[in-house]
Write a structure and sequence with these properties.
With about 150 residues, the protein is an alpha+beta fold. The chain has a single domain (about 5-150), classed as Thiol Ester Dehydrase, Chain A. The protein has 2 helices and 7 strands, in the order βαββαββββ. It has helices at about 10-15, 60-80; strands spanning about 5, 25-30, 35-40, 90-100, 110-120, 125-135, 135-150. Strands 1-2-3-5-6-7-4 form a 7-stranded antiparallel beta sheet. The radius of gyration is 15 Å and the shape is globular. The termini are far apart.
Length: about 150
């Protein structure tokens, strides 16, 4: 297993997401074609906490899945290297299966996303993902995505 570190600037070379929808802060490990580990630091400054919920802020489950998908998109993009300079790649959801939410995520938590590729074909990729906070499982899912390259 090779250790790899990717900061937010490198992350933005691989996926098109930007504030306020970039949901991964750093990549800690990356094995092209196999697995990835990324983190998201959750702060009270996240815009979704204003309405979810004001008295007891909880990160929305759909955003946990989106963060997982973004980390998976980074793995897929790094696997089919190099990222394009002119025609951006987009990794669209095709299916989400076997999702289980295990515990809420609160401001101050650090999410650790761990994903592995189950199947990879030319334009489709299936991954299994787990998200943890303090070693406790938060959410798990299988994600099927398709690759679309856009001309600008």
């Amino acid at each position: 297993m090779g250790e790899y570190v990717m900061d937010v600037l490198e992350i933005q070379r691989h996926i098109p997401h930007r504030f306020p929808f970039l949901l991964v802060d750093r990549i800690l490990e990356l094995e092209k074609g196999h697995r990835i580990v990324g983190i998201k630091n959750v702060t009270m400054n996240e815009p979704f906490f204003a309405g979810h919920f004001p008295e007891r802020p909880i990160m929305p489950g759909v955003l946990l899945i989106e963060g997982m998908a973004q980390v998976g998109g980074i793995l897929w993009s790094a696997t089919i290297d190099p990222p394009p300079e002119k025609a951006p790649r987009y990794f669209y959801f095709a299916a989400i299966d076997k999702v289980k939410f295990r515990r809420p995520v609160y401001p101050g938590d650090q999410i650790r996303y761990e994903l592995q590729i189950l199947h990879l074909k030319s334009r489709l990729c299936k991954m299994r993902g787990h998200a943890y906070v303090d070693g406790q499982l938060v959410v798990e899912a299988e994600l099927l995505s398709m690759l679309v390259e856009h001309e600008e």
